[in-house]
Amino acid sequence: MTDTLRTGLFTGLVVLLIVGTGVLDNWNLALIIVNYGLISAIMALGVNLQWGLAGLFNVGVMGFVALGGLASVLISMPPVPEAWSAGGVQVLGALAFGLAVIVALVASYKRTSGRLRAGLMIVLMIAGFFIFRSIFDAGVAAIESVNPASTGFLGGLNFGGDSGRDWPWIVVIGWPVGGLLAAGAAWVIGKTALGLRSDYLAIATLGIAEIIIAVLKNENWMSRGVMNVIGLPRPVPYETDLQADPGFVEAAANLGVDPVTASTISVKLAYSGLFGVFLIVLLILAQRALHSPWGRMMRAIRDNEVAAEAMGKDVTRRHLQVFVIGSAICGLAGAMMTTLDGQLTPAGYQPLRFTFLVWVMVIVGGSGNNFGAALGGMLIWWLWVAVGEYGPDLMVWATSALSDDSALRQSLVDSAPQMRFLVMGTVLLLILRFSPRGILPEK
Amino acid sequence: MEFLNGLVFLTNFVIIPATAYGAQLALGALGITLVYAILRFSNFAHGDTMAFGTAVAIKITAGLVALGVTLGPLPTALLALPIAIIVTGLLLLGTDWLIYKFYREQKAKPVILVIVSLGVMFVMNGLTRVFIGVRDIQFTDGARFVITVRQFRDATGLDEGLAIRTTQAITLVTAVIVMAALFWFLNRTRTGKSMRAFSDNEDLALLSGIDPDRVVRVTWLIVAALATTAGVLYGLDKSFKAFTYFQLLLPMFAAAIVGGIGNPVGAIVGGFLIAFAEVTITYPLKKVLTYWLPESMAPEGLVQLMSGDYKFAVSFMILIIVLLFRPTGLFKGQSI
Fold it and tell me: Exposed site from A81, A394, A431, B162, fewest CB < 10 Å?
């Protein structure tokens, strides 16, 4: 079977599953799957770049996704002027001071040696920490006391009115900013952790992701922590505005659809269009990168680091580069997802869903093959939703032999939504065993 | 008197909880380190193995309590523990036979085995969730305290009280027994010695007639025992929740790596090190310092160096520092 045919068949399968969901169940659900599927495909592309192309074992995807979500809040929410005047400058000043201390620490580590170095570093660290905390804590308290029920944070950079609805375009700008934020974090992490062995790198990235989530949960002045930021502005029209628009209602009537359904479907289609554009651009770029001399070099490094190094390739720098780019793509996807959710809920970030599920997508789709990873993203996302959505019904049917009040049946039906994890693990293990290079193998 | 009060306070809120937590982490890290030493991969499914074992123990405990069988002042879960270990052991042997064996025979790269263990992690996580649900479960019974705050105050006449919960005492006693048994097994028995030989040099071990399949089987059984014991002790001490057990993966790995992965002594030291660092840095030390420092220097703030949610950051910082400056860990671990 040729590669093109295989890719075509796989695409056909994904389309069939989604259209099938639309026809047999409802189109709203199908479009929700498409939208999150497109985002998953972008995440899978990012991980594929790191793992498929460069062989970097990054299990901190969740952290970068969450950073993207944070950027989306920091860009697209309207600012809170009272909070800025209460303690904004102080908090930013404290952060700048903290950064200066770290720079001083690095400088003293590099410039001095022996006892002087140890003494200097300890003094700097302890004094720096307490001075930082005293400036920072006061500023944070001031910000968080500004109307804590609805704001209590600095807000974003969206100056388009009180709800930010006048500037829908800034939301789309927030997405690449999410990528940049993730890239910045990835650079710092890569600088420290990329020299480690593959499984140490895995533990390190797993830890970083947990720390990023802990920061999001705790730093209320930044994004309200576990109180969540809700009502994020959108880049697309609101359903209620569409329903109030006579032109839209008429167009819907001409198509024979009631305006409410028409408005929900059009909003989702608008999102699909936006996400689709991003995915296609990224796919083209990823394909170009894969077939460029740079891509060949990356694969050479992946397959034999020692040989590549002997040929004069700077392995560490190339690893850092690809780690940053891949993480940036995950950050971009994370920002899109937060916009689509319309809210940032730090407690919702769970590694199984945001890190390991993306890994299942890449490995099932075919690591090293961009189309494979992207289609794997769509397929696994469909499966994830389908098991959660139809699993309970299926379980009711499968246990219909048992009597209605049987405790076993009850507990099986109740736990059916949890079957997702079982199904994902089984799919991953089956693919690893019988088709270890994925559905669309690398050429 | 002031000094003693401070010391009692510190013991009550930092030293005792950290010791119990450290013992639990050490048992978990021992399991990770054994898999690494014998099977040569980082087992990401370990947290979920613990969760599974604990879930089985909880179900058996519930059954025993329903039958009216209890251990009096001790938690009934201790009675359920051996059965849970056997069930978990069977599950691990089955997993090995069905999944890991194939890759071992292929001599797959360690990173492939790590990815396979991700799949196993998903399956075990799903099994546990389907089996027992996702809620928080308390399953401790029997006497709650060995010493209560009031008894301690009455006995010593100090202002500060000291309480030792039964679960904390049991954790320590069980952990010491399990660790002693493990070291006796590894150093004194034929099977234990063959395991160490296999870990040091696989080819040489095969040449001297050691049966690799037997070594692997025994390893999984020991790992099941360690994981289930660690999980049940943690669950008794705090509570059981599938997701929390998954999150324990990070401090346990940190403990194993800091101590030197593949080295059992290192895993134990690492476990206590991580636990003490986590608890000390995230506990507000104001009261201790108020007792210990002269009045003029008494702190105004809580002296909580980091908020409790950053406990992962603590294990992580220790991990990174050790990896950067001493990549083989504090005790010499393996490096493949």
Answer: A81
**How close does chain A come to B307, measured CA to CA in Å?**
8
What does the pLDDT look like over A315-367, one tens digit per residue?
999 999 999 999 999 999 999 999 999 999 998 999 999 999 999 999 999 99
β-bridge partners, B74: B71
Q: How far is CA A212 from CA A67, A199, A346, B258, in A?
A: 8, 20, 10, 22
Alpha carbon of B11: minimum distance to chain A alpha carbons (Å):
25
Tell me how far apart the alpha carbons of residues B318 and B313 are, in angstroms, rounded to a whole number: 9
Query: Touching check for A204 and chain B: CB below 8 Å?
Result: yes
Q: In DSSP terms, which residues pair with A79 in a beta bridge?
A: A155
Residue in the block written with tokens 């034929």: B190
Q: Which structure tokens are listed for A207?
A: 């830890």
Quick check: B199 and B37 in contact, CB under 8 A? yes
Distance of CA A328 to CAs A64, A156, A176, A272, B47, Å?
A: 7, 20, 8, 21, 29
For residue B145, the cross-strand partners are B165
Amino acid sitting at position A342: G
Chains A, B: CB pairs < 8 Å: 124
Q: What is the pLDDT of residues B188-213, one digit of tens each?
A: 999 999 999 998 888 898 899 899 99
User: Cβ of A347 under 8 Å from any chain B Cβ?
Assistant: no
- Residue from A237, A233, A199, A241 nearest A57 by CA: A199
Q: Could you read off the pLDDT of B127-143 as tens digits, one per residue?
A: 998 888 888 889 888 88
**Residue ranges of chain B with pLDDT lower than 50?**
335-336
Report the complex ipTM.
0.91
